[in-house]
């Protein structure tokens, strides 16, 4: 700072010390609170990402299983249709 631009305070030093100390303490408390919130949110995000990955893995397994069941179901339906046709053919031969 330039020598001519220095701030001069007209209040007594004891009041300024209390004011600046209180101001610093409030700023520190606000800063610590913000850091705690950020840390909590970061932890929450990491947990949610792990949970999401687990659900996606579970979804992939279930989709594979569903595809297998659908294929099995379609095969069973085809076999049933064939069995329904066979007796009709046997009756026509008699």
What's the total number of strands?
A: 0
- What is the straight-line distance between the termini? 116 Å
- Give the overall shape, derived from the CA principal axes: rod-shaped
Q: How large, in whole angstroms, is the Cα Rg?
A: 38 Å
Note poorly predicted spans.
none
Return the average pLDDT rounded to an integer. Answer: 90
How many distinct domains? 1
Largest sheet: none
Q: Give me the strand/helix succession.
A: H
User: What percentage of the residues does DSSP assign to strands (E)?
Assistant: under 5%
Helix content, binned percent: over 70%
Q: So how many helices?
A: 1
Structural class: mainly alpha
What labels would you give this structure?
mainly alpha
What can you tell me about this protein's structure?
- The protein has 94 residues and is mostly helical.
- It has one domain.
- Helices cover 86% and strands 0% of the residues.
- The chain is rod-shaped.
SSE order and pairing:
Layout: H1 13-93
Quick recap:
This protein is mainly alpha-helical.
């Amino acid at each position: 700072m330039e020598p001519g631009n220095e701030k001069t305070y007209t209040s007594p030093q004891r009041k300024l010390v209390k004011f600046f100390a209180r101001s610093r303490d409030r700023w520190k408390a606000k800063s610590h609170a913000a850091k705690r919130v950020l840390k909590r949110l970061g932890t929450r995000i990491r947990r949610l990402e792990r949970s999401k990955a687990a659900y996606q893995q579970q979804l992939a397994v279930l989709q594979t299983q569903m595809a297998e069941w659908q294929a099995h179901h379609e095969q069973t339906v085809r076999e049933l249709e064939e069995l329904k046709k066979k007796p009709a053919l046997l009756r026509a031969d008699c």
